[in-house]
């Protein structure tokens, strides 16, 4: 943005039409370049979800193992619910991997500090470091599990109708 942007007097004076066209094309090119070089918020969300889904799968697998060992009367129902959630997690994982592959985005684990986990994101010829705190991960995992559980509840309600 130059000093002349927003100054209405300069729009009609001392500018040739070719210069206006060149200036507008230059601004348009800069905006397109920024959108291609930066990760969008949707892409960051997909990366975050792809990082969290294996943790959710591990948690559900451990819960399924505990349920199998318990002598609970409702073991069969709990196992069915756990396996449904596990299958949904796998579907989402494959969908995200496919979508990120199409967008030429790769995610690799980098390093782990006390309460922070870092990942490297390679996208469109660039590299970025992405960090998640354990608290954020716990919160997001809890929200996702709640969403999967409510989805299961909706499916069960449809089956009972």
Describe the structure.
The protein is an alpha+beta fold and 161 residues long. Helix content is 68%, strand content 15%. It has five helices and three strands. The chain has helices at residues 9-12, 17-37, 41-69, 75-102, 134-160, and strands at residues 105-112, 116-123, 126-133. It has a three-stranded antiparallel beta sheet with strand order 1-2-3. A hairpin with a 3-residue loop joins strand 1 and strand 2. Helix 3 runs antiparallel to helix 4 (75-102), helix 3 (41-69) packs across helix 5 and helix 4 crosses helix 5. The radius of gyration is 24 Å and the shape is elongated. It starts with 8 loop residues before the first helix and ends with a helix. The model has no long low-confidence stretch (mean pLDDT 85).
Overall geometric form: elongated
Summarize the main sheet.
3 strands, antiparallel
Main structural class:
alpha+beta
What is the N-to-C order of secondary-structure elements (H for helix, E for strand)? HHHHEEEH
Q: What is the average per-residue confidence, as pLDDT, rounded to a whole number?
A: 85
SS element count, helices: 5
From the alpha-carbon coordinates, what is the Rg to the nearest angstrom?
24 Å
Strand order of the largest sheet: 1-2-3
Binned strand content = 5-15%
| Quantity of strands, as a count | 3
**Low-confidence segments, ≥5 residues, pLDDT <50?**
none
Helix content: 55-70%
Please identify the oligomeric state.
Answer: single chain
The end-to-end distance, rounded to whole angstroms, is 60 Å
């Amino acid at each position: 943005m130059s000093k002349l942007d927003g100054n209405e007097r300069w729009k009609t004076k001392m500018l040739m039409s070719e210069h206006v066209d060149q200036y507008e094309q230059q601004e348009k090119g800069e905006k397109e370049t920024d959108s291609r070089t930066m990760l969008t918020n949707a892409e960051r969300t997909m990366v975050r979800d792809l990082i969290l889904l294996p943790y959710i799968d591990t948690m559900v697998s451990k819960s399924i193992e505990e349920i199998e060992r318990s002598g609970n009367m409702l073991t069969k129902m709990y196992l069915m619910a756990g396996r449904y959630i596990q299958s949904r997690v796998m579907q989402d994982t494959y969908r995200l991997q496919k979508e990120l592959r199409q967008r030429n985005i790769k995610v690799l684990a980098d390093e782990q500090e006390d309460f922070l986990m870092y990942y490297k994101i390679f996208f469109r010829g660039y590299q970025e470091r992405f960090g998640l705190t354990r608290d954020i991960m716990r919160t997001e995992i809890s929200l996702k599990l709640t969403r999967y559980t409510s989805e299961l509840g909706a499916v069960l309600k449809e089956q009972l109708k």
